[in-house]
Amino acid sequence: GLFVTDYFTRTPRKLSPFRSFASIELFHFHIPEDTVIAVWNLITFKEQGGTFGDQCPDRSITVYFRSGAPSVINPLHTHFPRDTAVPGSFALTLTWTLPNRTTGVFNVTSPLPGDWFLAAHLPKDEGKISVKGLYEECQYLFQPQLIVQRLVNIAVLYPGHVTEQSMAPHNRSCLYKVFVPSYTSRVLVEVLRCRGAEGCPLWLRVRAKAPPLHNSTTLDCREHIPCQLAQELPFWQHWYYVLVEKHPGVLGTISFQVTVQLTDCSRPSLARPPFLPSSASMNMPHSFGSAGGLVLGDSPPPTSPNDTKHSVPIPVTSHAGERCWPVRPTLRNELDTFSVHFYIFFGPNVSVPPDRPAVFVINLLPVLDSGGVLNLELRLNVSSLCGENVTVFGCLNHEVPLTSGDNTSVTCETESLAGFLLSVNATASLSRLRIPYPQTGSWYLSLRSLCATEHGFEPCTNVTAEVYLRAYLSPCINDCGIYGQCKLLRTNNYLYAACECKAGWNGWGCTDNAEAFSYGFQLLSTLLLCLSNVMFVPPVAIAVRSHYLLEAAVYIFTMFFSTFYHACDQPGIVVFCIMEYDVLQFCDFLGSLMSVWVTVIAMARLQPIVKQASVLYLLGAMLLSMALQMDRHGLWNLLGPSLFALGIMAVAWTARTIRRRHCYPPTWKRWAFYLCPGALIAAAAVLLYAFVETEENYFYIHSIWHLLIAGSVGFLLPPRAKSSRRLGPLPRRKGCGYQLCINEQEELGLVDPAVASINSICTS
């Protein structure tokens, strides 16, 4: 055949340590039909400060692959919620081969067509809280690339039509495909009139959706005469691929015929007619491929004028043959993103007769519905059983309904199909099923009532069970409970939802309490973070006593909003919010930085003409508000204004030292008992905040931060002016000229400029 190669790539993304599915990076690909091989090239490289991160440590990267929907992963081995089905996926771990770069390759032979999803993450870290911008962070970037090789012009087999084929000596196999429409109960592939070698040394392989593999359904035509391979309950609305392959060592040309028979569920005794209906009547795609010179036949037989739209039939395998049961559709009602309810006509109560199953179909839209959770709930009305020991079984299968006719064993699996089993009876009248990230398409639910006897389950007589059926799509499982938050995430144009747990809870639905915080621990952490702000009461008292009223107001503002911000910021259930979280956080950050600003400006003891009208206080408030609005967690946006205030203080102190030719402040007691201890306490607080704080020790390390910062303010705040003499204001001379006021105690660094008017000696 003719091969075509397609290439797809995605933008590199920064990987994060795994905490929940909300912290992974998800990549979406689409594999076309008739693909024979798909190769993913997984490129990973390190960066640090805009350059290659050769000094960054090697951290393993785990990549997950799944077809049809995102992978449901559990790298921390947590417990899933009850009644949750976990679909499988393939995982691959990448190791580093170069100091700053590594490449992995993942091959898939004959992959399923459609959507494929890759999920990647780093291992879970220790949860250190780092200050943004303090140092260059190591970044691990991941970029997947996809190369697919697909066949074009694959020969198409039409039901009831015989295709002649001659396999040359240099050819090893011949590939065909046949489209299986809805309501088909059986696919029969047969190889006829095999000539050119003794015993027909051919392998016959059949597979749905993609070309066959070595482990696909296989038949050796040399050992089976006639060479017929049947597929019971095939997938509806999909291509089936037929591969005829020569045995190794067979030489010469082999000729044979291939034919396909499709059994219609509504007419189990007849195969589909040999004529070719139109594409619309067979629900067949318009792009077929080559048919080997097949000529269109007659049109479908005319329908009766009284023929009306009837329910869809489904196949049921039993000892008496194949029969069909109607499929009841559901009404889709979209409420919000991943919030869809499927209503049953004349429901939600469903009657399950004893002689036949009740079958329903739930249609999930491609791509749009695969990022949520499919929920199914069955509740049995016990009063409808009339005292009989009745059990209602439900089978949920993807793309084809499945109802077994064997009464002794109830299962939802065959050789090629696997479904989910639910059951309700008088003892357990409620059954639930949750499927996170379900595959899109049609899901069929088959309900059947059986009576339990000594010999197993048998059909009931004259007992019609009544079941309440509820099916809906939700973003997360139970909205992640009280210890989680359901987040709506996006990768390019694909939306999906995931839980982000808190207070030590883990799991897909935040239901794993192995490491959960107790209520007492949550209450203790909240009280420590809130009550540690009471340490600001002594600085407020000192500021009021020293006539620093503006500074005292800032400290009260900081104490108030820091207390209620931490009361609202708790991860557990001990939470109290008086305002919106964002408002409380902004006020807490602004109050903390303003406390540093006004304290440093007060220590500078600027001249009255500079400090008049609180110019610097207003300037600081505006600069800090701007910095917090730009980046609330940025280091330099927050550190810049503080360094600016320290620069003002250093200039003021240096000017006084030069003018007086003596160190300022002049007394050693001020340095030994106030400035040095206050600076050491503040430095210790900054070191704890920047290098020691983690998620586990946050509640007590941050409480110590509150205590140290408030304590340092009490040491660093300048004292109140202590005048040695009190001179009344001298009478001011009238007339022209200027007045020069000299504050002797201000020059010595002993008083506050606010009382300069009391102890000034003015001369004209």
From TrEMBL:
Protein name stated in the entry: TMM8B protein
Protein origin, superkingdom: Eukaryota
Localization: Cell membrane
GO CC terms, sorted: plasma membrane
Segments traversing the membrane: 516-536, 548-567, 573-597, 609-628, 634-655, 671-692, 698-717
Family the UniProt entry places it in: Belongs to the TMEM8 family.
InterPro entries tied to this protein: EGF, NGX6/PGAP6/MYMK
Membrane topology listed for this record: Multi-pass membrane protein
